[in-house]
Amino acid sequence: MVGQGARRLVWIAVELSNHARRTLSSTDLPAENWHIKKPALFVAASRDYVCRPAFGKASMEKYAPHAEIVELNTGHWVQLEATEEYNATLEQWIEKTPTARL
């Protein structure tokens, strides 16, 4: 029974991956829109073993070069693991972001 359940989960993951590839491709979005031109904040989690901070930072530097990048000493769920620090970081970012540019 455990083997069947695991096979079912793998099948679901493959189907979701195939669906994502069918519904979104790089040709769906014009190249000039690949970069975020508005203010952005990326909060990386230094102990995240799912979404590695280095990968997230590299993506942000490529697609949102003006983004502010902050790294907190948490695992994957930053908002739950460091709620106060996350909220303070977000609040500070919002306060210093000019609303005219939003």
Explain the overall architecture.
With 102 residues, the protein is mainly alpha-helical. The protein has one domain (29-101). The chain is built from four helices and two strands, in the order αβαβαα. A two-stranded parallel ribbon has the order 1-2. The model has no long low-confidence stretch (mean pLDDT 79).
Main attributes of the structure:
102 residues; mainly alpha; two-stranded parallel ribbon; 4 helices; AB_hydrolase_fold; AB hydrolase-1 domain-containing protein
What is the strand tally? Answer: 2
Described by strand count, sense and barrel closure, the largest sheet is: 2 strands, parallel
Poorly predicted runs of 5 or more residues: none
Multimeric status of the protein:
single chain
Overall number of structural domains: 1
Report how far apart the termini are: 53 Å
Helical fraction equals: 40-55%
Shape assignment: globular
Question: What is the average of the pLDDT values?
Answer: 79
The number of helices is 4
How would you spell out the order of helices and strands? HEHEHH
Question: Which band does the percent of strand residues land in?
Answer: 5-15%
* Major β-sheet strand ordering: 1-2
Rg, nearest Å: 18 Å
Structural class: mainly alpha
